Amino acid sequence: MAMTDPERIGSGRKLLAEGPAAFVDEHMSAAQPDGKDWLTALEAEDRTRWG
Fold this sequence. Notes:
By secondary structure, this protein is mainly α. The model has no long low-confidence stretch (mean pLDDT 90). Helices cover 78% and strands 0% of the residues. It is elongated and about 50 Å long. The protein has two helices and no strands.
């Protein structure tokens, strides 16, 4: 049976959500000095900036 439009959209959204994660992690890790975890640094900066 063929996929319905909502099934296709759901499938595409799942792929889109998973797709860029490795790319973003690779590039953000490379930009972070001293090999620190970029996500931890971002969380710390957000806490400093926004409380």
